[in-house]
């Protein structure tokens, strides 16, 4: 799940299957411009096990923002990633 507050605080978490050994979260702050969104800051965290969570905050200026969250899960034999977006 993703929670992103207008104040810049975010919380992301993921519960995966038991064979997942680690989860990597990459959270990008994106600002809306004339030609769409562009990334202005990136934060990341890695968690061991099949459940992970990450909370932090971005400094927001004026404008319209969203976060792009990439969840990457790793098993002994494979990895898979999913991208989700959340508007401010």
* Morphology call: elongated
- Beta-strand share of residues: over 45%
What are the low-pLDDT stretches, counting only 5+ consecutive residues below 50?
none
Largest β-sheet summary: 4 strands, antiparallel
Major sheet strand order: 4-3-6-7
Termini separation comes to 15 Å
- The residue fraction in helices comes out at under 10%
Mean pLDDT: 95
| H/E element sequence | EEEEEEE
**Count of alpha/pi helices:** 0
E-strand count? 7
Based on secondary structure, the structural category is mainly beta
Rg (CA only):
14 Å
Notes on the protein architecture:
- This protein is an all-beta fold and 88 residues long.
- It is 0% helix and 69% strand.
- It is elongated, with a radius of gyration of 14 Å.
Label this structure with key terms.
mainly beta; four-stranded antiparallel beta sheet; three-stranded antiparallel beta sheet; 0% helix; elongated
């Amino acid at each position: 799940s993703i929670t992103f507050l207008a104040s810049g605080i975010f919380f992301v978490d993921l519960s995966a299957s038991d064979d997942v050994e680690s989860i990597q979260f990459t959270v990008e702050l994106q600002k809306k411009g004339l030609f769409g969104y562009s990334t202005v800051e990136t934060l990341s965290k890695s968690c061991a096990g099949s459940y992970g969570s990450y909370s932090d905050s971005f400094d927001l200026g004026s404008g319209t923002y969203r976060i792009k969250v990439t969840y990457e899960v790793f098993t002994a034999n494979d990895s898979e990633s999913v991208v989700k977006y959340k508007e401010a």
